[in-house]
Design a protein that fits this description.
By secondary structure, the chain is α/β, with parallel strands linked by helices. It has eleven helices and 15 strands.
Length: 355
């Protein structure tokens, strides 16, 4: 009989409830404890899932349950403290939301905790399980695009919400190649006060070790994706090669054109479809160390470094080499360097969020 893994979930907003429902629906997991700083939300979740172990103190709940897996879906400013709770609870795997951290001051500490503990950690870049994302990957892997020379990603949502996803899938489409350097620019201060603090618009270039160039844009100045109606899903990620291109639209399917023809298909971000395989592969990794989860921390951390290097480039007005060797507070860099001028929009629909 296969082992059933005990789970504690901290943070019961939309993402936390997605995780809780998917864990409960998977026969390999049991949600054994939950935590949230909002008592009403905590009680509602406990009633829905029939749980006895609950509390507003995640550390206390985790220590009581001693889970196999600690999952936290909290705000982005408490990453290292939550990772520490998971490690000290004895969990063998920690599942966390993106981004890895808001600064390298905290990101370096998260990495130190992960590497020194030996605990398996993953970051929820679960869009890669969408059939439309995977269809593009299959086209790229088939060689139909010839020599890949460019990967790209755009999103009209702001950086700390979206760029982690874009970079993760750009790296995936580029065979997980290492990045050598980054250069970026940013505009607009409005979202620096957000819970996911970001410039209103940021764009940059990534030079990968295999010679491929990455181009990424997030926020008010990012190009429209007119094929997609829902604003948060106006995201485009793809690859261009000597023989064609292939790209996915988060809310609008996928398409590819090569010298042999053109193809397209449906697909849309859907937690009900994307979460089950994401969770199942957590069980697979717990069962077998060799079945490393595609959303593993090591991969996500490389994307995090690219994001932080872009911010440092904004502040320092030049190229930034990777990997990063010293910690910094990149948010303070942004606050000190981004001019106090209104951002210019790529489309009228962005005015609701950025003006």
């Amino acid at each position: 009989m296969e082992k059933k893994y005990r789970v504690v979930i901290a943070g019961l907003g939309k993402r936390g409830m997605h995780h809780a429902a998917t864990f409960q629906a998977n026969g390999r997991f049991e949600v054994a404890g939950i935590s949230d700083i909002n008592p009403a939300r905590l009680d509602a979740a406990a009633a829905k899932f029939g749980l006895a172990v609950k509390g507003t103190d995640a550390n206390q709940v985790a220590r009581e349950v001693q889970p196999d897996l600690f999952c936290f879906c909290t705000m982005a400013d408490v990453r290292s403290s939550m990772v520490k709770i998971g490690i000290e609870s004895g969990a063998r795997l920690i599942a966390m939301e993106k981004p890895v951290a808001l600064t390298t001051e905290e990101g370096f500490e998260v990495r130190r905790l992960v590497e020194s503990s030996g605990v398996k950690v993953l970051v929820s870049h679960q869009h890669r399980y969408g059939e439309h994302y995977q269809a593009v990957q299959r086209v790229i892997a088939s060689g139909a695009l010839g020599r890949i020379h460019t990967v790209y990603g755009t999103a009209t949502g702001w950086m700390m919400h979206m760029i982690s996803h874009l970079i993760e899938y750009m790296r995936w489409y580029n065979g997980e190649a290492e990045a050598n350097w980054v250069m970026g620019q940013a505009a607009g201060r409005g979202k620096l006060a957000d819970a996911h603090p970001s410039p209103d618009y940021i764009g940059g270039f990534i030079q990968f070790a295999n010679g491929v160039r990455g181009v990424v844009e997030c926020g008010a100045g990012a190009p429209d994706v007119p094929e997609v109606d829902y604003w948060w899903r106006k995201c485009r990620v793809g690859a261009q090669g000597t023989d064609g291109f292939a790209e996915v639209l988060t809310g609008g399917g996928w398409r590819a054109v090569t010298k042999n023809g053109s193809w397209s298909g449906d697909g849309c971000m859907n937690y009900d479809l994307d979460m089950p395989p994401y969770v199942q592969q957590m069980a697979d990794w717990l069962d077998d160390d060799g079945k490393i989860h595609p959303c593993n921390f090591a991969s996500a951390y490389k994307g995090f470094e690219i994001m932080m290097a872009m911010i440092r480039s904004v502040a320092g007005c030049g190229q930034v080499a990777l990997p990063l060797v010293s910690a910094a507070n990149e948010l303070e860099m942004l606050r000190a360097s981004v001019p106090d001028r209104k951002v210019l929009l790529s489309m009228a629909a962005n005015a609701k969020e950025y003006l």
